[in-house]
Amino acid sequence: MEKTMKIINHIRGTSSTQHRLFRKFVLESQASHDDLFLHNDLRWLSKGKALERFVELRAQVVDFLKQSKSKAAADHLRVMQDTLYVCNVAFLTDIFSHLNTLNLQLQGKGKSVVDLVEKLDAFGNKLDLFHADLLSGRLLHFNTLKTVGEGNVTDKMKTFITQLKDNFSARFDDFFISRDVIGFVRDPFTISPSGEFSTNAVKMLPLDEAAIQSQLAEIQAAGDMKAALRGAESLSAFWVSCPETYDTLKTLAMYVLTMFGSTYTCEAAFSKMNSIKTHERNRLSTESLEDCLRISLTAAKPDVKKLASEGKCNFSH
């Protein structure tokens, strides 16, 4: 990865004549890369996206380095023509692509801890699939390695997947929530009242275990509650509307659903604020900034036609 970024930075740092030449290569390649981003500055790209673009343009990069006369270009060219290096870059491209997909799944509004835990569990299972896929040599989940890297699997790649799984488990070890509690919040009709669920629940929150078991048995026998879950807009909506008859279950569910699983919402708010209060708008008052921020973050959609029909126009003549 470090070598790849050095090559990219070398291309960015070339003279204007050389850069125009490379841009020519980029434009010529657009016939097969219609969605290619023509952007000189790579800082805004994630490493995964940078790798994808780098692999797509590997032939053009080699041509560019061949025409460059600097010693650094010659060194980078030797790297680019190394078969093992190309295989490793192809492998990392696939890995970063999977990680980027997970990252996008963990972002967005309305994501609860239940959603996040399920996605993390799914990715942990996928890592087992990736490892088995590498061992088999089928490369169903490593398309870039299969095509660009010509299916060359090394021991380092297998070790990397194993270490990634261990690192993944260790990183989210303190994020543990009992999976039967997660399953209960997602669908209370699939959890056994006499199982370990109630014991795990009271470890999270000091509730009456007998009440948990009793109310769970009651809610599972209520046909209207099953219908309510199927027709609910979201899990939160279902539990908010849940009758107080099941107050203990409701308290447990709302405790889990109100956990902050990520800082996405907060970061999105800061991003909106930065785009609103620019250097060109340095006289924007705090009150106006708050109003603009509230409008940009709200999910409410105004009925423009209704507002316009109720408005009164004032004419000067």
Automatic annotation (TrEMBL):
TM spans (from-to): none
Single GO MF annotation: protein dimerization activity
Residue stretches making up the HAT C-terminal dimerisation domain: 235-293
Protein name: SCAN domain-containing 3-like isoform X2
Organism this protein belongs to: Labeo rohita (Indian major carp)
